[in-house]
Amino acid sequence: MTLTISCFLIVCPMVFLAGFVDSIAGGGGLISLPAYLLAGVPMHNAIATNKLSSATGTAISTVRLCKNKFVDWGLAFPCISMALLGSFAGAHLALTASDKLLKWMLIPILPIVAFYVLKKKNLEENIQTDISRRKQWLLCAACSLAVGCYDGFYGPGTGTFLLILYTGVAKLPVSKASGTMKLANLSSNIMALAVFLFSGKIVILLGLAASVFSIAGHYVGSGMVMKNGSKIVRPIILVVLALLFIKIITGM
Predict the structure, then answer these.
(1) Cα–Cα dist 41/51, whole Å
(2) pLDDT tens digits for range 117-127
(3) What are the angstrom distances between the C-alpha of 38 and each of 43, 52, 91, 249?
(4) Where are the transmembrane segments (predicted)?
(5) What is the Cβ-side half-sphere exposure of residue 200, based on CA atoms within 13 angstroms?
(6) d(CA 87, CA 2)
């Protein structure tokens, strides 16, 4: 495709905002992917190029959260390995299949997830500290595999789904879930990025420029996570879910 100044003016500011949102609760792709499409980037190229900018930004927020002990390192291995495996399968599927079926499957799921988040006054409440470590390990592995596959295939909302599953299903406290989610999300991003890079679908120049803005957004957003924790996470999750629901039913 032919790149114009307007492409950069549309994509770069929106990718900064996407990075900010993504570093806090995931779902930055809800903003960045439509930005690429609005700039005239074809669907497959948009999904692929979005992986480049999102992966670089996610790396920054992941490093900050890891350094500040927001990761459950005992669960890092199953989360990372299963996210890699799922993303590998999903990315290959994305190169040959339509995303319509997966998007329509999400329509009944999103209201249920939103209801769950609304029902809980705080994502930290009712955390079962007596859940066995083995069960937690298996649950995190299963969640990472499923969401990793979705991330490779399509992507928007990945971090949000991981955060909700880690806190709601595996019963991780939101502080540890935030960093652990970022490790899994980064892993799935890198795997999908590698698959798309070898397929030649990435618009390199636009992706590199957007990466700079993504890094800045993630850096600012991850700092807010460390200061405010779940007070920021809950409302942003609700906004992200609403945006994803609207995006799907309007066919954007």
Answers:
(1) 14
(2) 666 555 555 45
(3) 10, 18, 22, 18
(4) 70-95, 101-118, 138-170, 190-220, 232-250
(5) 1
(6) 29
Which of 50, 64, 60 lies closest to 15 in space, CA to CA? 50
- 203 vs 243, more confident: 203
d(CA 210, CA 220): 16
Question: Residues of the chain with pLDDT > 90: what percent?
Answer: 36
- Overall pTM > 0.70: yes
Higher pLDDT, 147 or 231: 147
Residue length of the chain: 252
213-239 burial, b at 16+ Cβ within 10 Å, e below that, comes to: bbbbbbbbbbebbbeebbebbbebbbe
**pLDDT tens digits, one per residue of 48-74:** 999 999 899 889 888 888 888 889 999
Burial 22-54 (b: 16+ CB within 10 A, else e): bbbbbbbbbbbbbbbbebebeeebbbbbbbbbb
The residue extents of the domains of the chain are 8-249
> What is the overall mean pLDDT for the chain?
83
